[in-house]
C-alpha cells in the first residue's frame, strides 16, 4: 500500500505533486477514480506521434474509452456527435496504437503517445492542426495525404 492510497480521490492529484519516480503509486483504477472528467463524463485526450512529437489531434474519452485504450493499446475515443465509443480507424483504417499515456498534474487532460497509421485527421491530413493563424490571416500548412473520399467513401 502506498502513502497515496489513503488520500480521498478529490485530493489525490494534489498529493501526487510531491511524488517522485521512486514512490509507489496507487493502482490505475484508483487514479481513474480521481480523474476529473467534465460534467458530461469526458476527458480531453491529445494524441501525439510518439517518435516525432507531432501533435496529431485532440478528442474526448470517457472512462470506458480510456480503460479500453489502456487494456488493448488500440486508441478508443468517445464520439460526442454519435454518443458512442469510437475506435480510431474503425471506418478509415487509420488506427492509433498506444505507446504510452500520461495524465496532467490536475488529472483533467490526457496525453497519448501513439503510433499513427496514415493520416490522423478526417480531412486526410497527418494532423488535425493544419490551419495556422496569425493576427492578420490564416494559412493551410499541409496538404491531405489521402483524399477523404478514399478514406471514408463518397459521403
Structure commentary:
This protein has 2 domains: 1-34, no CATH class; 35-152, Phosphoribosyl-AMP cyclohydrolase (Ubiquitin-like (UB roll)). It is 17% helix and 28% strand. The protein has 4 helices and 8 strands; from the N terminus they run ααββαββββββα. The model has no long low-confidence stretch (mean pLDDT 93). Catalyzes the hydrolysis of the adenine ring of phosphoribosyl-AMP. Homodimer. InterPro entries: PRA-CH, PRib_AMP_CycHydrolase_dom, PRib_AMP_CycHydrolase_sf. Its EC number is 3.5.4.19.
Figure out the total of helices: 4
* Major sheet strand order: 2-1-6-5
Q: What is the multimeric organization of the chains shown?
A: single chain
| Relative helix content | 10-25%
Mean of residue pLDDT values: 93
The rounded distance between the terminal residues' Cα atoms is: 54 Å
CATH architecture of the largest domain: Roll
> Order of helices and strands, N to C?
HHEEHEEEEEEH
- Uncertain runs: none
CATH class wording of the largest domain: Alpha Beta
Q: Give the percentage of residues in beta strands.
A: 25-35%
- Mind telling me the CATH superfamily name of the largest domain? Phosphoribosyl-AMP cyclohydrolase
Query: How many domains would you count in the coordinates?
Result: 2
Structural class: alpha+beta
Radius of gyration: 18 Å
CATH overall fold name of the largest domain = Ubiquitin-like (UB roll)
Shape: elongated
For the sheet with most strands, the description reads: 4 strands, mixed
Number of strands: 8
Amino acid at each position: 500500500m502506498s502513502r497515496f492510497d489513503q488520500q480521498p480521490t478529490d485530493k489525490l492529484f494534489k498529493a501526487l505533486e510531491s511524488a517522485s519516480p521512486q514512490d509507489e503509486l496507487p493502482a490505475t483504477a484508483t487514479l481513474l477514480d480521481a480523474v476529473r472528467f467534465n460534467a458530461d463524463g469526458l476527458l480531453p485526450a491529445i494524441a501525439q506521434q510518439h517518435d516525432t512529437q507531432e501533435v496529431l489531434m485532440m478528442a474526448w474519452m470517457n472512462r470506458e474509452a480510456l480503460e479500453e485504450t489502456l487494456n488493448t493499446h488500440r486508441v478508443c475515443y468517445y464520439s460526442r456527435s454519435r454518443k458512442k465509443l469510437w475506435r480510431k480507424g474503425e471506418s478509415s483504417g487509420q488506427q492509433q496504437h498506444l505507446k504510452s499515456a500520461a495524465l496532467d498534474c490536475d488529472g483533467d487532460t490526457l496525453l497519448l503517445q501513439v503510433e499513427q497509421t496514415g493520416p490522423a485527421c478526417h480531412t486526410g491530413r497527418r494532423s488535425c492542426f493544419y490551419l495556422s493563424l496569425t493576427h492578420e490571416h490564416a494559412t493551410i500548412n499541409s496538404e491531405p495525404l489521402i483524399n477523404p473520399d478514399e478514406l471514408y467513401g463518397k459521403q
